[in-house]
Amino acid sequence: MTEMIKGQLSRRTAMGTLAGFAAAMMLTGCGSSDEGAGAVATAANVDGPPEKPNLKLGFIKLTDMAPLAIALEKGYFVEEGLNVSLEPQANWKVLLDGVIGGQLDAAHMLAGQPLAATLGYGTQAKLIAPLSLDLNGNAITLSNRVWGMIKNDLPMEDGKPKHPISAAALQPVVESFKAQGKPFNMGMVFPVSTHNYELRYWLAAGGLNPGFYTPGDVGGTVGADVNLSVTPPPQMPATMEAGTIDGYCVGEPWNQQAVARGIGVPVVTDDEIWHNNPEKVLGLREDFAVNYPATTAAMIRAIIKAQQWLDADNGANRAEAVEILSRPNYVGADPAVLAASMTGKFTFEPGDTRPAPGFNIFFDNFAGYPYYSDAIWYLTQMRRWGQIAEDHPDSWYVDTAKKVYRPDLYLAAANKLVAAQAIPAEAVPQTDGFREPTSEFIDGLTYDGRKPNAYIASFPIGLKEGQQVTASGVSGA
Fold first, then answer.
1. Which CATH number describes the domain made up of 138-277?
2. What is the pLDDT of residue 7?
């Protein structure tokens, strides 16, 4: 079977795929740019056998690495002529360095990592994201001590805390800590992680300043009411139990692990902060896609198939996915803990399990398509908190997004799957790369990816036009 897959496709099939790719290029507006011309060259040989069939992909032990595990376990990589090994990484920096250094061919990556690397924030490298791995999947958990300090003052509904819970509930706690001369500390997984920006968004929406970054500063604590620090995902529960942090934002299963161990309570999911927010991406070096276009296309196709399997029949396969992910070579968590968030429900505390059918979305709602507007949202948050030190026009945000997010490569792969009747045509969006404006945020503000500066200006807490951050605070207009 593998040899058949590796064989040459018919001329008719190849021409049809190239025609579909050309149409996709026009649809996304890539064909008129230098990047678009490079993408055409990259995609020209996507129908051949993989140039590099043996691949090593990295991941962090989180449930949203599931598309990679399923692509391997269900044989989708093999169907595309690939021999893939999946290797867990100690933390996000090790994973990023592995991709940049070539020890890893691609990885389950934070959406902000290829953007930050392209900008030279933290490290400099030309990385791309040709596929989004999922929507949603994170939560914010507080220690039992902090939960006990706020629970009785929360509005109730049917005998349970009303959701979403605002970070405003933390204000008396933060003031109490301050009066005792102690900082209020929370954890997130990486300075350019979704978790950092979601935690900051939630805190600021509740009137708490999570702090600003100065050039060369990875702490981001200037002017902070709440101090945020980096902790690898699997270490979050133990770090909170030790008292080093008072809460954290992380992906699953590490919020449910806190519930299972009786040490903390998740108070808000990222879907409640931003409904159907983009999460992880497939990240790889730009030159890998250029040098190995057929390999890149095959990898994307295999992962798309896995994403479809994960969401098929209203989650009918999720129980099997939980069993696979519980294995020590993948996430290695107790199946019951994994199932507590991955099978259409989410447990906030014992006795408070609620329906959450969209907590993890891998294929539905065009979850795999790498929207420019998703990339731009991350860039707005980098500017909001000082990781991007200077103002830039709206066009800069769009141009930066197009350097990193590559819907042209996604569409080339997805359209071939449509032609093979492996996925339905309606699963591929008809779009110029931008989502429609949305107000589905916890603070009700409207985000339009075409107007990033107006969006940045709309936040009560965050840098404004002309402002910069120094060690002594925010300066400028």
1. 3.40.190.10
2. 31
